Amino acid sequence: METFKRILSFARPYGRKIPGYLLLSVLSVVFGVVNYALLGPLLTVLFDNQEAAAAVARPDFAPTVDYATEWFRWLLSSVIRDDGVVRGLLLVCGAIVVACLLANVCRYLSQRIIVGVETRLMQNIRGALFSKILSLPVGWFTARRKGDVLSSISNDVAEVQSSVAGSFHVFLREPLLVIGFLAMLIYMSPQLTLVSLVTLPVSAFIVTRITRRLRAGSVETQRLMGRILSHFEEAISGSRIIKAFGARRYAEQSFDTENRKHRETLRQVRNRQELASPVSEFLGISIAAGVLFYGGWLNFHGNLGMTWQQFIVYIMFYWKVLEPAKTIAKQYALVQKGLVSAERIFHILDELSGIPDGTLPVTEFREAVTFDHVTFAYEDTAVLRDVCLTLPKGKTVAVVGPSGAGKSTMADLLPRFYDVQEGCIRIDGTDIRSLRLGDLTRLMGIVTQETILFNDTVFNNIAFGMSSVTREQVAAAARVANADGFIEALPQGYDTNIGDRGAKLSGGQRQRIAITRAVLKNPPILILDEATSALDTESERLVQDALTRLMGGRTSLVIAHRLSTVRGADEIYVLQDGRVVEHGNHKDLVANHGLYSHLCSLQDFS
């Protein structure tokens, strides 16, 4: 119930719409009751003309069902006596058509209101999910399958929309139908209705027992769907590797295993879900048969208290009670699946952002960045141990070392993608954890080995995250980054769409667009995380030239694997197993014949 209430909270403000919805729903039920109540007079006109034409005194007004019934009998008998049976039949049929029209108009208008509530709810859930995804720390994504996250964003949201959000009108309108028609049943024959009311709880108990186990099956179904989406994502992103290694059969077998598990679990869930409706219908028919038998028994003993026309109308009313009851039972089974999906969504929304925002504003960088005895570990795996490093303003500091030494982790700690566990990082003497995150990241520009571009135009990728940027500013930044030539040669120039993750561009072109983005931001602190390690020789030369222009006059932290790119750094720190084992300039480190000198010799560089 708490999950359902929380889902409903995303539709706020919905309170002002509920009274209108309820009013229209009540009117729809009233006109629906009138529609079926008119079947009695219709049967009387068709099969007992004399009774229909019998004189009836005009009743005195009273706000009761009896008054409405007697008034219509008076009107009908008057029309038949004055204008004939055909006119009376026309009156009854016209009244049925009007009542049906009004019932459906009110129903449609009420549905328009609830559709507005449902669509607002889904819009707000998607918005909250997207905002949460943007606020979660980088480490949250590395610890989870991408397919599970995508499954929650797509399948779980769709499941909530189709089952939980789609059930609002069922749980609001159908009970009104039950109450309306049940009231007429009690009015017509309390004795008969009491028999049916005693048996209905038994039916509800059986249906609830059937649907109770849907939740566990739905949890497993959604988990397997997350794994299936992971296989799809890996097949798309890793298509080159799969083809290059002839691993198509292996990939298909892995996918087929998960796909068959999902199919079997889904089959069991759907079978149990579909069982609710026929069981509900069978129980309803059984109860209806019992009511018919009891009504016949009462009639046989002269205690029914209704004409045969009224008894037929009573059965029609009873059937209209069973229909919404069956709908509620079926929707209840669907909601059980939807609530599982909602809980998976809320599991994401309830995740702690992980990186608490600071309170101190910072607008400029004046002196130095300092790593002060920094220690960091991914869960139980230590990556950095007691690292000390100083990056003075206007200087270039490089961090080198073998793979796994912790170089990229240092680059991730500075913009607070992760927070240190021991020690601290300071900017101008202030712990970065006390600074506002937005202000901190505005001080920095980042160019990484894996260039992150979006399925958008060249212009929008360069101006990403920056407002009021002109075409001239973007073009000037591209010239600095050595990118203007190839951009202008594209089919639509700066308005060319570069495809998913920049797939229409070469590696060097993607990297130069990333550098252009950094140039346009014009940050005082620049972080280069192996920005040229994945490029060929020609592209590396072009990119390195662009980086040299970019670093001019800026404070730069360079993470490098190719030592040729850091030869001119003011200070080089050498990491091994998460510790700083050497630091100095290139010439001094080579002369020390330590780890740096060894790495240079391995790269045929001195």
Please describe what this structure looks like.
The protein is α/β, with parallel strands linked by helices. The chain folds into two domains: about 1-350, Up-down Bundle (ABC transporter transmembrane region fold), CATH 1.20.1560; about 370-600, Rossmann fold (3-Layer(aba) Sandwich), CATH 3.40.50. It is built from 23 helices and ten strands. The strands form two sheets. A six-stranded mixed β-sheet has the order 6-7-8-3-9-10, with helices on both faces. A four-stranded antiparallel β-sheet has the order 2-1-4-5, with helices on one face. Helix 2 (about 20-35) runs antiparallel to helix 6 (about 85-135), helix 9 (about 170-190) runs antiparallel to helix 14 (about 310-350) and helix 10 (about 190-210) packs antiparallel against helix 13. The two termini are about 70 Å apart.
Given as residue ranges, the uncertain stretches (5+ residues, pLDDT < 50) are none
Radius of gyration, taken over Cα atoms and rounded to an integer in Å = 37 Å
Amino-to-carboxy terminus distance: 70 Å
The tally of helices reads 23
Helical proportion, percent range:
55-70%
**CATH topology category name of the largest domain:** ABC transporter transmembrane region fold
CATH architectural group of the largest domain: Up-down Bundle
Mean pLDDT: 78
Q: Could you give the order of strands across the largest sheet?
A: 6-7-8-3-9-10
The fraction of residues assigned to DSSP E strands is: 5-15%
**How many E-type strands?**
10
The shape is elongated
* Count of the separate structural domains: 2
**How would you name the CATH homologous superfamily of the largest domain?**
ABC transporter type 1, transmembrane domain
Structural class determined from secondary elements: alpha/beta
Largest sheet: 6 strands, mixed
Identify the CATH class of the largest domain: Mainly Alpha
